[in-house]
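Narrative of activities, Objective 1.

The group set out to show that a structural description can be obtained from nothing but a protein's sequence at a throughput compatible with the screening campaign. Below is one input-output pair from the validation batch, recorded exactly as produced.
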Amino acid sequence: MKEYFGLLKGGATSALWAAVVNTTLGIIKTIAYLISGNVAMFAEMLHSYGDAANQFFVFIGSALSKKEPTERFPGGFGRLVNLVLLGAVIVVGVLAYETIVEGYHHILHPAASDEWFWLNVGVLGLAVVLEAVVLWKAMKEVMHEVPDVKASGLGIIPASFKNLKHAKPATKLVFLEDSVAVSGALLALIAVVIAAYTSFDSATGYASIVIGIMLLIVVGRIFLDNAAGALGAADLEMQKRVGDRVLTHPDVQDIADLDIVTEGDHRHVELKIEVDPEMTIAEADDLRDYLEGRIREVKGVTDVIIEFDEDDRVATWPGPEKGEK
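Output recorded for this entry:
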């Protein structure tokens, strides 16, 4: 048990922080919904509880995925976070369905009520602020996980969206869910105002359906990303970067094979290089140490396997000009 508590310290802090915030918001929205009966508030309530549950499980999964390999599981537990996220999409999918159904019923049977207008506005306004804070933290986490890209101030916002695909699975989920959370809270707030000041009483119903559809989009994105991760998908873009880095060394004549497999937060690199057949064992050992150090500079690389083969004089790997270090 002590080992598991130790692993929790390495869990995704962005997911834990988001889980706490969304649980708090879920409780506040539940009280507001029970008082006002507003359907947009109902949608936001389900959204917050769904996000909180997912982010808590993601925190647990990201922590346990760092457990050291065992005799029974020699390949380690890196893919555990992907499996947890695949389970999380089921929760989000069910909540999205309930949100859409409730919105549809409200459109069919709209009820005009602005008795609790300021309560709904206040709660949704608070939700926008708190979700925006969590989203901002997730954006900064994305930039932290993509060290090759530098951004500061408001420049972090577009840079985080552009480089989201390079973020860890847990960070990506928090980013996507809170992007929808901020958008959903704003949409619900606008719908409440429209319903209160116009005759468009079904505005909150339409807002609920749109929020549900946004949740389904997140479900699809998370499912596709983590299904690939659970199967051990190759990181083709990272392969190109690492290959170019390796090939710049003058003693590396060619790259016969390079595979980089992403498992959760970990990247496993298997490399076969072609060298001069006259190279000594000592020189090959020094080259291996140098290349392994260079490859481990890439964030997320946990193990590197390097094999040698004699140069066959046939170029296999396209890369930068030789001679650069």
